[in-house]
Amino acid sequence: MNNHLIFQKIINKEIPSNILYQDKIVTAFEDINPKAPIHILIIPNCFIKTPNDINANNKNIVAHMFYTAVQIAKEKKISKDGYKIVVNCNENGGQEINYLHMHLLGGVKLKTLY
Ligand code: AMP
Known about the structure:
By secondary structure, the protein is an alpha+beta fold. The protein contains three helices and five strands, in the order αβββαβαβ.
């Protein structure tokens, strides 16, 4: 499915979204259907389809995604109470958009998944 184009259009500001942070490597924006008071998606600016596509050449991008998520959590003042960072992979993992993304969820006590 070509739904990864949605996220590419958000990066390029071709469709509206609430971008909280953007640099040369990543873009962070509010999830359109938030599952928590704070629900932000962090994506790489260059296309990576799923976690399976992380490799030796792009693994530093993923570190920067993680770093960005933590910085936003601190800015949103949820770091002390805590938060979840979730990455879904393919069908069993519940990945609906075929573009690697990190969910930053917080602002409420979240249920554990396991
Ligand atoms: P996942 O199930 O891990 O693939 O999560 C995809 C996420 O993308 C869901 O939480 C959606 O609400 C979110 N989403 C889909 N389209 C948009 C959009 N246009 N702007 C912001 N978030 C979106």
